[in-house]
Design goal:
- It is built from 19 helices and no strands.
- By secondary structure, the chain is mainly α.
- It is globular.
- The structure holds tryptophan (TRP).
- Tryptophan binds next to α2, α3, α6, α11 and α15.
- The site of tryptophan has 16 residues, from α2, α3, α6, α11 and α15.
Length: 463
């Protein structure tokens, strides 16, 4: 079958002809680059700590397997079929199915979620830079847990520093985005991801010497269901989407650059498995150190920034490894943030805005919103604008962005995507993209399992 017959690209694609990824490997690396980021190394350990460990990890893994992977396949499939920005893709694919173009709303919500995430992601990613400087100066050598905590506290207390690094990081993101993702991204991710992986293995190796590795294994892998609440199940679900860059246009936008002959199912499995491995390795590297130094697993967003300097400080060659680690974390966050901006930039391009203008404009807007996250960490740390709702009591603006995107917008977007590909799109059309032995199973899952799963989790949280 010819390419023209299997997708809905046509005259109306507004003259934006995307260059395709040069190989399946490059797509995998770009998708892994998007998926692997702060979500795996910063967020996964801290929310696992806050939600009691094993049972949470189990629910997260189940969410990845039965909801995350099918949704990833759906998004890559839709992206390739539509060949446009997520907003354009949803509208065009719906129209080609003879349905309302209002399905573009799913793309709009995704683009908005990615934008909001980018605004605070950039602030957190900025934290890696002062840590690189400190590590390179040898500042972690023999550092005690309290001093590491104080160092992190000092960074958060300084709006000027946070703003500086937030600005630098957003600038880096815009830089690659403006040049076109293929250009800057392809080469960088192909060595970066393997290097990060190796470094995590070294850290896990060190963690084994702390004498608390067994305790960490029990914490991460022995489910204690008494610590599981309805909200932690929602957090696990939201994180499954966040960590795989789903329901936010990233995978759909990257799918648009994917060649027709690449297997979407195999590729999605590969990406998800690599992503999960990085998160679990991060957990195995961090929790032994947490237990060895009497730190609190539930301490929150500072967890790795307080814990890892202590670990590096005791390791032979720790200054070198610490520098390398935070550099790689910065790069991992960078390849993720680029993907967050992509759906908005592509959309603006379709509207006739030049790529550079679109990237600069989108980045600038996200930078501005990001300033409210900077302030949430210090001057506005007591400002809880939604405190009238019990759920948001004590939540700063930063907490609210995180909650809205991961716990509401992404699950809702994924639900609508599942309904679209499961019930609206003709199975022949999805089969033409997904093909092969996986289509029937995938179709049953997105029709029933994914929507029911998301709805049940929503129901128990809202009522
Ligand atoms: N998956 C990335 C991480 O774990 C975050 C990310 C990248 C993302 N692109 C996204 C999150 C788009 C939401 C939307 O760090």
């Amino acid at each position: 079958m010819s390419v023209v017959a299997t997708n809905v690209q046509g005259k109306e694609s507004a003259g934006v002809t995307p260059a395709l990824w040069s190989s399946r490997f490059v797509f995998i690396m770009a998708a892994v680059g998007s998926a692997v980021g702060l979500g795996n190394i910063w967020k996964f350990p801290y929310i696992t700590g806050q939600n009691g460990g094993g049972a949470f990890v189990l629910v997260y893994l189940i969410c990845i397997a039965i909801i995350g992977i099918p949704i990833m396949m759906s998004e890559v499939m839709l992206g390739r079929r539509g060949g446009r920005s997520p907003i354009g893709t949803m509208g065009a694919v719906a129209a080609a199915e003879g349905r309302s173009r209002n399905w573009a709303g799913v793309g709009i919500m995704a683009t908005l979620a990615a934008f909001l995430i980018l605004s605070f992601y950039s602030v957190i990613a900025g934290w890696t830079m002062p840590y690189i400087v400190e590590a390179a100066k040898g500042g972690f050598a023999g550092i005690a847990a309290e001093d590491s905590g104080a160092m992190f506290g000092g960074l958060l207390a300084s709006p000027g520093q946070l703003l500086l690094w937030h600005s630098v990081f957003m600038g880096l993101t815009v830089l690659v985005s403006a040049g076109g993702v293929k250009h800057g991204l392809e080469r960088a991710v192909s060595w970066l991801m393997p290097a990060l992986f190796v470094l995590l293995l070294i850290l896990v190796g060190y963690a084994m010497t702390t004498g608390h590795f067994g305790e960490a294994l029990v914490f991460l892998f022995r489910p204690d269901f008494s610590s599981l609440t309805a909200e932690s199940i929602l957090v696990a679900l939201g994180h499954a989407f966040f960590t795989l860059s789903l329901a936010s246009g990233a995978m759909m936008a990257y799918g648009a650059y994917l060649k027709k002959d690449v297997s979407i199912a195999r590729t999605s499995f590969t990406v998800a498995i690599m992503d999960v491995c990085v998160a679990l390795l991060a957990g195995l590297a961090i929790f032994p150190v947490v237990f060895a130094h009497g730190l609190q697993p539930g301490e929150g967003p500072g967890l790795i920034f307080v814990t890892l300097p202590v670990a590096f400080g005791q390791m032979p060659g720790g200054g070198f490894f610490a520098t390398l680690f935070f550099v790689l974390l910065l790069f991992a966050a960078w390849t993720s943030s680029i993907s967050m901006l992509e759906s908005l930039v592509r959309f603006l391009e379709e509207k006739g805005v030049g790529r550079v203008k679109a990237a600069v404009g989108g980045g600038l807007a996200a930078w501005l919103v990001g300033i409210t996250t900077v302030l949430s960490l210090n001057l506005w740390s007591d400002f809880a604008p939604l405190a009238m709702f019990e759920r948001f009591e004590g939540k700063t603006l930063f907490d609210i962005y995180d909650y809205l995107t991961a716990n509401i917008m992404m699950p809702l977007g994924a639900l609508l995507t599942a309904i679209f590909v499961g019930w609206v799109m003709k199975p022949e059309h999805s089969a033409a993209e997904l093909g092969g032995q996986w289509h029937a199973l995938w179709h049953a899952v997105v029709r029933y399992v994914t929507p029911i799963g998301v709805l049940v989790i929503f129901y128990f949280n809202l009522f």
